[in-house]
Specification:
By secondary structure, the chain is α+β, with helices and mostly antiparallel strands. 20% of the residues lie in helices and 44% in strands. The protein has 2 helices and 10 strands; from the N terminus they run βββββαβββββα. Strands 1, 2, 5, 6, 7, 8, 9 and 10 form an 8-stranded antiparallel beta sheet that branches. Strands 3-4 form a two-stranded antiparallel ribbon. A hairpin with a 4-residue loop joins strand 1 and strand 2. It is globular, with a radius of gyration of 14 Å.
Length: 143
């Protein structure tokens, strides 16, 4: 259930971005997103959802020194599977603006971590919370 006015953009080998017009671009051949969702799969060394999610978030933080944990984990589900969500705070490197990043995760049958990263500027996040939740609720997993 990605909003109809959002575009699908390649995020690399194992992920895809969905973002509204004007919420993405590139600087020095690096993709930049200010609003949207990144959906993908990550290899993990753990079969435990929280440990795998911790590992994934550490990987995100290694590439971004501004990323800070904002909340504890909350439990939920993605397509009927146990899932976790955690909210992070960040400063967008391209805009210098504060942003909120929510990471949703669940395990796939092959042991991979499935993730959804929802991002929007702090002052606009409430406007995007419902579309983000709609995307997560509409996900159907095969693996």
């Amino acid at each position: 259930s990605v909003p109809s006015n959002w575009r699908e953009l390649s995020g690399g080998n194992s992920s895809v971005w969905y973002a509204p017009e004007g919420a993405y671009g590139s600087v020095q051949n690096q993709a930049i997103f200010t609003h949207g969702v990144n959906i993908g799969v990550s290899r993990t060394n753990s079969r435990n959802l929280q440990q795998a999610t911790d590992e994934f978030i550490r990987g995100l933080a290694q590439g971004n020194g501004n990323l800070r944990q904002q909340s504890s984990y909350t439990r939920g589900s993605i397509d009927g599977r146990n899932a976790l969500a955690i909210t992070l705070a960040n400063v967008n490197e391209a805009t210098g603006r504060q942003e909120i990043v929510t990471v949703y995760t669940t395990m796939l049958q092959d042991g991979s971590l499935f993730y959804v990263i929802a991002v929007a500027p702090r002052e606009e996040y409430n406007n995007y919370a419902r579309p983000f939740q709609s995307v997560v609720n509409s996900i159907r997993l095969n693996g």
